[in-house]
Design brief:
This protein is α/β, with parallel strands linked by helices and 336 residues long. It has helices at 7-20, 29-41, 51-57, 76-86, 101-113, 117-125, 129-141, 154-168, 189-203, 215-218, 246-258, 265-281, 323-335, and strands at 65-70, 92-95, 145-148, 174-178, 207-212, 239-244, 284-292, 300-308, 314-316. The longest helix has 17 residues, at 265-281.
Length: 336
């Protein structure tokens, strides 16, 4: 007859067995606790430099994915450049196969010196010494920025990021991917997003992923919503930001009214209001926050208006009119 093991013997046996078993998927709750404490106390969380958003998001943490949605030419790049400018002293890796690194660099120089990039390019072309000095100082300002403008595959991203960390001598503060469609990870956007999410988690680095929405999702200047990605990509994201231009929606409304053979008095008044709003929003872009997984973090669904300058700088309006709109109106009055 087999003797029953005593409780102490059973406990000792289980301890030995647990040491021998290597779990691939099981994570004790203590591991999630440690991760939360580490994230809460981490100095690696990346902020956007925009007060209302930073208060609600409390930074993009290592392994977290922030999805930035917008229609073509809606302001995604301008917002991204401003985020880079706010974090210019930190190690950032930008993956942008859609745009040569040299053009990204001159846009950043425009931000640093508040000069339109096209104007700066013309000055460099003729050998302007001050313009060349601006480029030197921009290089110093962004001394930890690395731009990878080659075709984008997950394997190449990992190798490039490993090299970047070696070059920096530290972990990256932020990885930016511009944009989702160009990721070479299958034909479907969901598989591409999955690959980027896995990269951020495995590399333990915050990731900002840009996604250009379809024409139907961004048509007529409609505001970005949680489902504007049109593929379910919000599933992968810790945060989802949207960028759009109100001028496009206003122009669409005006076009519809102008197509009518006869307008009512109310519609005539409405056209007047829309024409003024169109003049105002020629100089703005709007940013919202439609997903926020931070505990207690609120959404900013209606969006916040920013004045967009030809230098690429953004200024939160907070109820003010764009300075460029006011200047334009004053110049028109002086001519009259």
């Amino acid at each position: 007859m087999t003797e029953l093991l005593q409780p102490a013997e059973l406990e000792a046996g289980w301890a030995v067995l647990e040491q021998q078993v290597q779990y691939k998927h099981v994570k004790p709750l203590a591991e999630h606790r440690r991760r939360f404490v580490r994230e809460s106390q981490s100095e690696r969380n990346v902020t956007l430099g925009i007060g209302p958003f930073d208060r609600e998001m409390r930074g993009i943490g290592p392994g977290h994915l922030a999805l930035l949605l917008g229609y073509s030419h809606s302001g995604k790049t301008q917002l991204t450049l401003n985020i880079m400018y706010q974090n210019r002293d930190r190690p950032i890796a930008l993956f942008t196969p859609d745009e040569p690194g040299s053009l990204v660099f001159v846009k950043l120089a425009g931000l640093v010196f508040d000069v339109p990039a096209a104007q700066l390019e013309e000055r460099v072309k003729v050998g302007d010494r001050d313009a060349l000095r601006m480029l030197d100082e921009t290089e110093e300002e962004f001394s930890k920025l690395l731009i990878f403008d080659r075709p984008l595959s997950p394997k190449l991203m990992r190798r490039s990021y490993e090299e970047a960390c070696d070059w920096w001598g530290e972990q990256g503060a932020l990885v930016i991917v511009d944009y989702l469609d160009l990721v070479q990870a299958g034909e479907h956007l969901s598989s591409k997003a999955d690959a980027i999410k896995a990269f951020g988690t495995e590399s333990d680095v915050p990731v900002l992923l840009l996604h250009q929405t379809s024409r139907s999702a961004g048509a007529n200047g409609r505001a970005m919503r949680i489902d504007s990605g049109n593929y379910g990509g919000e599933t992968w994201a810790t945060y989802q930001l949207g960028v759009w231009r109100k001028r496009n929606a206003i122009a669409h409304e005006l076009a519809q009214l102008r197509e009518k053979p006869k307008l009512t008095d109310v519609e005539v008044d409405e056209m007047g209001y829309l024409e003024r709003d169109l003049a105002v929003h020629q100089y703005t872009l709007t940013v919202n926050l439609t997903k926020n997984k931070r505990p207690g973090g609120q959404l900013i669904e209606d969006g916040i208006d920013f004045e967009l300058y030809d230098t690429g700088h953004l200024r939160m309006l907070e109820g003010d009119l764009p300075t460029q709109f006011i200047r334009n109106r004053l110049s028109l009055r002086s001519v009259q």
